[in-house]
Amino acid sequence: MSHHLVEARSLCFSFPDQAEVLKELSFRITHGEAVAVVGANGAGKSTLLLQLTGCLLPTSGEIRVGDLPVTRKTLEVVRRAVGMVFQEADDQLFMPTVFDDVAFGPRNLGLAEGEVAARVTDALATVGAAHLPQRPPYRLSGGEKRAVSIATVLAMHPDILVLDEPSANLDPRSRRQLIELLQAFEHTRIIATHDLDLVRQVCTRTLVLYQGRIVADGETDGILSNEELLLSAGLL
After folding, report:
1. What are all long-range contacts of 90-93, with beta carbons under 8 Å and residues at least 24 apart?
2. Distances in Å between the alpha carbon of 210 and those of 38, 119, 235?
3. How far, in Å, CA of 64 to CA of 94, rounded?
4. Which of 84, 152, 160, 235 is such that its CA lies 20 to 30 A from the CA of 187?
5. Could you tell me the pTM of the whole model?
6. Residue 179 main-chain phi, psi, to 5 deg
């Protein structure tokens, strides 16, 4: 089984006593694709990402990672395959030092401390934060926090990276560094964002959500050159 595949089949989701947030979503993302999920606020982007890790489960339909539907019974396997970087880095960083934050996941897998240290070192080096392991997270800049939050996910060796608004609140230099990092990854990448320039530079395919439905799914250049589509979806 390849854990790199992600597929939604007539996926619907609603919170209790509320209208549907996601409505009959169907798509398939294959190994190594970099796919953007774009839409106005309230379109359902973050809710969709939370389905991929089982933080939320479908009301009907299904989301699959590889051959497995995402259910309570499969969460352990799914969460080893899918690593999510949340929009707010402070939601992901909570330990006394950067090293401890990046080590948290591997330690919870029961890995030997030598393997944990190797994963931390490799993950921090990958995101350009090799100099930060002993720093307290609250003393980091916004760009450093974003890099470390990505490292906490990379240390788990996921097949699929899911990122929610990764460039939010970054200064221009940190944003450029983030884009270069995302371009270098060979993982399957699913990125929810309002940053259409990042989408153009990183993602070859784009899904457009509007009021909980996919209204377009295609090559990024074609999607972003369709001004009428972007206006109707609240992106311009």
Report:
1. 90/137, 90/145, 92/149, 92/152, 93/137, 93/145, 93/148, 93/149, 93/152
2. 9, 39, 10
3. 30
4. 235
5. 0.94
6. -60, -45
